Each structure stands twice: as structure tokens, then as C-alpha cells.
């Protein structure tokens, strides 16, 4: 059951990056920040320096007023971003800026469907492609609604990265994996972002179960905040996603500049931990 | 499925994917998908199970107090001088509103599914009270999410829920109203999928909720049909109901959808006016979008960010509307209009003084449309209005707005 219904563009940035990281015998560091938090300039500075600090893949959150699957950290980040005037145009502009400097690091836009739906799927995909977006994670589009965005995105050369969760049983898993490309995001615990850390043993067993169904890389997220936790998960997963911990650093900093520095410092720490995790 | 008439029935929705036309669906996080599919299977099984129907009917009669009367509002009819007005008295049901019909149906489903913990969102608090009531009746843990603004303006209901043993969790995000409470309930559900049943209070949310809430509320329209037949020997000419999410309206409308002669009118909350940004009329002032698991009309900006609704009535203060209403609007089977805060207050006052009935501010929106519409209609026009709830919970709001006019003295002197 490892065959996807859609050709998963063998030479995408995401595929190249995960192959390169695998060759180094380590997990990829996937970082998340909310676009426009705490303001456009600071968010752009954080974003542009992220790859140099050690992020292998960067998820950029598209702010939405009603982030139903997110915990307080990302809810507040979203509110700060929207209050500071973040728009979809500005989020896409951030990706364009990034692409001027970095042609290799994959960028994944993450968020909810309504802002994309309102803009129009084809217009959004055209603009995202042009900006240099590699993948999309849209929380409220399960496989039952693949015709809405997943299939058009794949046809436009943008990976649709699906979430699998502890409730995704073996019966559902093939449906979740079909049309998924780039990587699979395994949500390690039932709940919202920023919740409790999962036990590594349980997650390892789940990742093993998923690998029986697919060859695409499996990244693990939700509740991973420290270098130590990242290393533990990075021993067996293809990627480790860290978001809320970075958002908190930006939120708690005295100035936006200090926030950017703190985010980059934790990113370096996480990257270093993943480099040695399997030794 | 075989229809004798050429026109296909409008009562067959939703389709297998949960759509009414373009509206509805299951736009939820993967964590919730298996649960929603499970709920759908259980609901299908329950519908085939005579024991389920029997238990629901028994409790509806002896615990809720059904059937609710269909009352000829003689003085209101006289005063308006046109259509003959009947009130469907959901306000007389246990807990004081139609919300109990759905809460009871869903708690029986929760029991079938072996869930021990019940959660719900509430705006005016009527759904929260109904949910806390059935949770107490069956000995289940109950957590109610309620916006902090709504907690402030619906204090009596907060206390009722607490008295019934529910934990009321204030939600401060956004405007602190129904939308924010629903976000928080969804977050709870996604975190506690194993033991928790989410009793959604209106005909919205992911499939199968719009369908099952409608089915549990359809008792309103079914009874109306029989009662009016007994009293007048025929179908009504028009139906009027208020709409936030739209459950009381869908409950009244659904059994009549295929009766072409029956005019169907839904009344949204126009707040301070549709020309201002402060209203809650998703059909009159919104655009299609995706929120809370379904595609429907939403108050939103050009960026797809959801707007904050406003209505004097907490139960209508929601930026969306049930997907079946969106569809009925789209195919023009139902007409959707709006009433302002002031019009609702005027109607509230009129019903108190003419009929000795204190209506909920939500239901007062439906009455406001009756006041506009009835005088221009012939005396043999039969109009049924859903009096979806009673107004005791609204005393603080009404006292604030109408103190001088009604001779109410807040200090009790």
C-alpha cells in the first residue's frame, strides 16, 4: 500500500532535502513559526535566518482567526500577527524574500482552509508556486475532501502533507497516505499544538506501524520543546517538528530582535541535538 | 427513494459526504475523523433500532413534557390585524427551550457509544443548560464552554448549569461569544477523543451533526403539522423562526420542505443594522467559507478571516449558519430576512403585554418579522411562529434596554 495515486514529483525540494538528511543518518529539523508574529519585519528576520540556524524544513503558519487545532501559544501568535496587519499577500511575500537567498530549503505553508478558499484555490496555488512554496499542511482538510485542495495542489507541483494521528487506525491509514507527498506529519498525541510531550516508546511504535504502509518520510510533532526531547524522537523518525516552543520564545522576548535571536539559538540547539542523536 | 412526483424531495439531504448542495461536509482535523465516522455509524444504527426510538419518545413525553402546545395567539393576531398567528410553544418544554430535544437525543447516542464525559458549547446558555440537564439525568461528567461576554449577560443560565453539576469554562479568546466557545469545545474534543462526546447545539459542525440535530429537532415541525391539521384542517401558509445556527428553524421547517404551498421564513439577527458591521446575519451579510467543520455562509473579510458577530441575543450571536439553511437559501426554497436588536426588543415587549408570554430574545427576532409581515396578509393566512425559548434568562439585558419604557425599576423600589 505504498503507492500514491499521484506522482509525487520525484525531484521536489522536500524529497531532495529528506534524502540528504537521511544520508547524514539523522532526522530533519522542521521548525514552525507564525507568519507576521509579532510583526512583519521581526517575523521576516526570524524566518530568513532559520535555515542558517539549522532548520532543514520550515513551516510558515498562515494566520487564521479561529485556529481550532492549536493551543494557546499559536492562538496568541495568530492574534498578534493579524493585529499587526498580516495578510496572505504578506505571507507569500515572506516566501519570495526567502527564495531570493535560499533555493534549497523547503518551505511549507501551514494553516486552515478558509483563507485559501476565500482567495480561490487556483489563484492561491498559482501565487504560492510563484513565491516558491513547496508544501501545504491544511489542518481541516481530511482525505475525504482531497478534491478541494490536495489534488489541485499536487497537480500544481505543491506537496500536500497530511497529518496522521493516534486515532488514525490501520483501516484509515492508506486513505491518509494516498495523495500525500513530501512527508507525513505524525501528530504524536491527541490534542492541540503545544500540548503534553508524548512518550518516545509509544511514538516509535506508531511510526513503525506507519512505515509498514509507506516509504515517504515521517516527521513527528506536537509537544516537542527541548533538544533532549527532539533527540529522543529523532533517533527513529525522519523529522522532528518544533513550533510552540519557538513561538513562546518570540512572545516572551523583551524586544522583537531578542525574540529572533532566541528563536535562532533554540533552533541551533535542536539541530545540534539531532546531529548526534543516533550516535 | 422512488418519488411519485416529478420534483425530487428536498428532505433527502445530506449526501454521503455530508453535503447539502455545496454546503456542509466534514472539514475537521484528522484526529476527529475516525470519531465522526463512528458517530455516523452509531447514528445510522440507532435510527434502525426501535428501542432507541422508544426510549427517546418516552423521555420526550415524561421528562421533556412533549408535545409542546400549538397556541393560537388571539390578541397578537387581533392587534396586527392580518394573518392568524399560532405560536409553537417550545418555551414550555423542560429547561425552557427547544434545545432539550437535541441534547436528549445526543446523550442517548453518547450512552450507546459508551462515552462517560459530555462537552458542549453554549451562547445564550440554553443549550448548555439542556446539556447539563441530560448529563445530570444520566450521571455523566459535563463541561460547558461559554464565552466570557455571554457568561456576563446570561448569568442565570450559568448558575443553572453549575447547579446541575456542570463545569462552566469561560472562553476569553476573540469576542468571548459562541464562535469562541465552539473553538474551545473542539480543542477539548480533539484532546479527549477517547472518552468524550461532543453535543453540538445547532444544525452546524461536521457531518453528521447538521443532520442528526435536525432530525432530533424535527419533532417540532412534525407535531405542528398534526396539531394544525386538528385545529384548522390544513397545512400552514407560512412558517417563521429565528436563526443563529438554525436548529429551532430547521426543526420547524424540515417536515414542510416538500410542501410547495408553505412559505418558509428564517429570521437572522441584524444587530445594530445590516448596514453596520455589528450584526449576525450570515446569509444577508456573509459569504461562503469553511469554519467549524462545515462549508456555509460566514461573516468574514476578503482575507477569509472570520468576523465577530453581534446581536443583543447571545443565542444568535454566531458568524455562521447551518449548511442546510445555506442550501435552502441558495435554491431559494426558504426566504431569509433579518431583524434588528431594537425590532426584537419591540416584539419582546409586545408579546409580554398582549399574550402574557415572556419570549426569549432569540425568539423575539421571529416575532419581529411577524409584526412586519402579518398585517399585510389576509385573515385566513395561517402563520406558525416557533417560540423557541422563554425569556427569563434575558431579564438583565431587557431591564438594561427597556427599564424606563416598561416601568421596570432595577433597584426594585
From TrEMBL, chain B:
Record-annotated Tryptophan synthase beta chain-like PALP domain positions: 65-389
Cofactors that this protein relies on: pyridoxal 5'-phosphate
EC assignment: 4.2.1.20
GO molecular function: tryptophan synthase activity
N6-(pyridoxal phosphate)lysine, modified sites: 99
UniProt entry keywords in alphabetical sequence: Amino-acid biosynthesis, Aromatic amino acid biosynthesis, Lyase, Pyridoxal phosphate, Tryptophan biosynthesis
InterPro entries noted in UniProt: Trp_synth_b_CS, Trp_synth_beta, Trp_synth_beta/beta-like, TrpB-like_PALP, TrpB-like_PALP_sf
Superkingdom of the organism of origin: Bacteria
A Pfam family it matches: PALP
SUPFAM superfamilies assigned: Tryptophan synthase beta subunit-like PLP-dependent enzymes
HAMAP family according to UniProt: Trp_synth_beta
Quaternary structure (record): Tetramer of two alpha and two beta chains.
Described purpose of this protein according to its UniProt entry: The beta subunit is responsible for the synthesis of L-tryptophan from indole and L-serine.
Family classification: Belongs to the TrpB family.
The protein, known as: Tryptophan synthase beta chain
Amino acid at each position: 500500500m505504498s503507492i500514491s495515486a499521484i506522482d509525487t514529483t520525484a525531484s521536489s525540494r522536500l524529497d531532495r532535502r529528506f534524502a540528504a538528511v537521511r544520508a547524514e543518518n539523522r532526522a530533519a529539523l522542521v521548525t514552525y513559526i507564525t507568519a507576521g508574529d509579532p510583526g512583519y519585519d521581526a517575523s521576516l528576520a526570524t524566518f530568513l535566518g532559520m535555515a542558517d540556524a539549522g532548520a532543514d524544513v520550515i513551516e510558515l503558519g498562515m494566520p487564521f482567526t479561529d485556529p481550532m487545532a492549536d493551543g494557546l501559544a499559536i492562538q496568541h501568535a495568530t492574534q498578534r500577527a493579524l493585529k499587526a496587519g498580516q495578510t496572505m499577500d504578506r505571507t507569500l511575500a515572506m516566501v519570495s524574500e526567502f527564495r531570493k537567498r535560499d533555493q534549497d530549503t523547503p518551505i511549507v505553508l501551514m494553516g486552515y482552509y478558509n483563507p485559501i478558499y476565500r482567495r480561490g484555490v487556483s489563484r492561491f496555488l498559482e501565487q504560492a508556486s510563484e513565491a516558491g512554496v513547496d508544501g501545504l499542511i491544511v489542518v481541516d482538510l481530511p482525505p475525504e475532501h482531497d478534491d478541494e485542495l490536495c489534488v489541485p495542489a499536487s497537480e500544481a507541483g505543491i506537496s500536500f502533507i497530511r497529518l496522521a494521528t493516534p486515532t488514525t487506525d490501520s483501516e484509515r491509514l492508506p486513505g491518509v497516505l494516498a495523495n500525500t507527498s513530501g512527508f507525513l506529519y505524525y501528530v504524536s498525541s491527541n490534542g492541540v499544538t503545544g500540548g503534553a510531550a508524548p512518550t518516545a516508546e509509544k511514538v516509535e511504535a506508531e511510526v513503525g506501524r506507519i512505515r509498514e504502509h509507506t516509504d515517504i518520510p515521517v516527521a513527528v510533532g506536537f509537544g516537542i520543546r527541548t533538544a533532549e526531547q527532539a533527540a529522543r524522537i529523532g533517533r527513529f523518525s525522519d523529522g522532528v517538528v518544533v513550533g510552540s516552543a519557538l513561538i513562546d520564545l518570540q512572545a516572551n522576548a523583551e524586544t522583537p530582535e531578542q525574540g529572533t535571536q532566541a528563536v535562532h539559538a533554540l533552533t541551533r540547539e535542536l539541530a545540534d541535538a539531532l546531529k548526534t542523536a543516533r550516535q | 427513494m422512488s418519488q411519485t412526483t416529478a420534483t425530487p424531495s428536498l428532505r433527502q439531504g445530506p449526501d454521503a459526504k455530508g453535503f447539502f448542495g455545496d454546503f456542509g461536509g466534514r472539514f475537521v482535523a484528522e484526529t476527529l475523523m475516525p470519531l465522526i465516522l463512528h458517530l455516523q455509524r452509531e447514528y445510522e444504527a440507532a435510527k434502525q433500532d426501535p428501542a432507541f426510538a422508544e426510549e427517546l419518545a418516552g423521555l420526550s413525553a415524561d421528562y421533556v413534557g412533549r408535545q409542546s402546545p400549538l397556541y393560537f395567539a388571539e390578541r397578537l393576531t387581533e392587534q396586527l390585524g392580518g394573518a392568524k398567528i399560532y405560536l409553537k410553544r417550545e418555551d414550555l418544554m423542560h429547561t425552557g427551550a427547544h434545545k432539550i430535544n437535541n441534547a436528549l437525543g445526543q446523550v442517548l447516542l453518547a450512552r450507546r457509544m459508551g462515552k462517560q464525559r459530555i462537552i458542549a458549547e453554549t451562547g445564550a446558555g440554553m443549550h448548555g443548560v439542556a446539556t447539563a440537564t441530560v448529563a445530570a439525568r444520566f450521571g455523566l461528567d459535563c463541561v460547558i464552554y461559554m464565552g466570557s461576554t455571554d457568561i456576563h449577560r446570561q448569568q442565570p443560565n450559568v448558575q443553572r448549569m453549575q447547579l446541575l453539576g456542570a463545569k462552566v469554562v469561560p472562553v476569553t479568546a476573540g469576542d468571548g461569544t459562541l464562535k469562541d466557545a465552539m473553538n474551545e469545545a473542539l480543542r477539548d474534543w480533539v484532546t479527549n477523543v477517547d472518552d468524550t462526546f461532543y453535543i453540538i447545539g445547532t444544525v452546524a459542525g461536521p457531518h453528521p451533526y447538521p443532520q442528526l440535530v435536525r432530525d432530533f429537532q424535527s419533532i417540532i415541525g412534525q407535531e405542528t403539522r398534526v396539531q394544525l391539521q386538528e385545529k384548522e384542517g390544513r397545512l400552514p401558509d407560512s412558517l417563521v423562526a429565528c436563526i443563529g445556527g438554525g436548529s429551532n428553524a430547521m426543526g420547524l421547517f424540515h417536515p414542510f420542505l416538500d410542501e410547495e404551498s408553505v412559505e418558509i421564513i428564517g429570521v437572522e439577527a441584524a444587530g445594530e443594522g445590516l448596514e453596520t458591521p455589528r450584526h449576525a446575519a450570515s446569509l444577508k451579510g456573509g459569504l461562503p467559507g469553511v469554519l467549524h467543520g462545515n462549508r456555509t455562509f460566514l461573516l468574514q473579510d476578503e482575507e477569509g478571516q472570520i468576523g465577530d458577530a453581534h446581536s443583543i441575543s447571545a443565542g444568535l450571536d454566531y458568524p455562521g449558519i447551518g449548511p442546510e439553511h445555506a442550501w435552502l437559501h441558495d435554491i431559494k426554497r426558504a426566504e431569509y430576512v433579518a431583524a434588528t436588536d431594537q425590532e426584537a426588543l419591540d416584539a419582546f415587549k409586545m408579546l409580554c403585554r398582549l399574550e402574557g408570554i415572556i419570549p426569549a430574545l432569540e425568539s423575539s427576532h421571529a416575532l419581529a418579522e411577524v409584526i412586519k409581515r402579518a398585517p399585510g396578509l389576509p385573515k385566513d393566512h395561517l402563520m406558525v411562529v416557533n417560540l423557541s425559548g422563554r425569556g427569563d434568562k434575558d431579564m438583565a439585558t431587557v431591564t438594561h434596554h427597556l427599564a424606563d419604557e416598561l416601568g421596570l425599576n432595577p433597584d426594585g423600589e
